[in-house]
Amino acid sequence: MLSAILPHILGLAGLLCAVMAGVFLAFSDFLMRGFIQAGSVAGMASMQSLNRTVLRSVFLIVFLLLVPGLAGLAWLSLSKLDGAERVLVVLAALVYGVGALFVTLLGNVPLNRRLDRLPVDRPDGQAFWGTYSRQWTRLNHVRTAACALAALALILAALSAA
After folding, report:
1. Angle, vertex CA 134, rays to CA 25 and CA 102, nearest 5
2. At CB < 8 A and 24+ separation, what contacts does 110-119 make?
3. pLDDT per residue as tens digits for the range 5-41
4. pTM here?
5. In angstroms, rounded to a whole number, what is the distance separating the alpha carbons of residues 69 and 75?
């Protein structure tokens, strides 16, 4: 029974990783550039507001639930899949865990917390905004690539296991 639905579960996990990649890509492609072009006060205020909003979003739920979900799929793949499918699922879990979760927790979140403590109308806040926007966007590129790679690996595993 599980062997029959596993390709569908892998495909769904791949789709969810692709959605995460799309959200991160939107930030890397145009949202951060728009915030930067708005100027330090408006850009900073927008990012501070967005960072507070994301804490109560469906995005965060999916982002976080993918971690144990992919870990479970990797564990399951060790007994239910062989060869390339197994490698692809384990690779997807590792890439997502390191490239999306750890980069977020160790890079983006500390930057967000520091930004949140700074007033938008003070020189120290405005000075940090330039550094923040560059560093945060670079880290976000990593998250985008990690989610896209995890999605690709899961979809390939699903197709191969079907």
Report:
1. 60
2. 111/135, 111/136, 111/139, 112/47, 112/51, 112/136, 115/44, 115/47, 115/48, 115/51, 116/48, 116/51, 116/52, 118/44
3. 999 999 999 999 999 999 999 999 999 999 999 999 9
4. 0.94
5. 10
Q: Two tokens at 59?
A: 């995005």
CA nearest 83: which of 13, 161, 5, 1? 161
**Token pair of 65, please?**
């639930």
Task: Kindly report, residue by residue over 33-63, the tens digit of the pLDDT.
Answer: 999 999 999 999 999 999 999 999 999 999 9
Phi-psi region of 39 (alpha: psi -120 to 50; beta: other; left: phi over 0): left
Q: Given phi > 0 = left and psi -120 to 50 = alpha, else beta, which region is 73?
A: alpha
Structure tokens at 110: 């500390």
Contact indicator for 115, 44 with CB cutoff of 8 Å: yes
Tokens 């390339």 belong to 84
Res 162: pLDDT: 80
Q: What is the dihedral of CA 10, 16, 21, 22, to 10 degrees?
A: 130
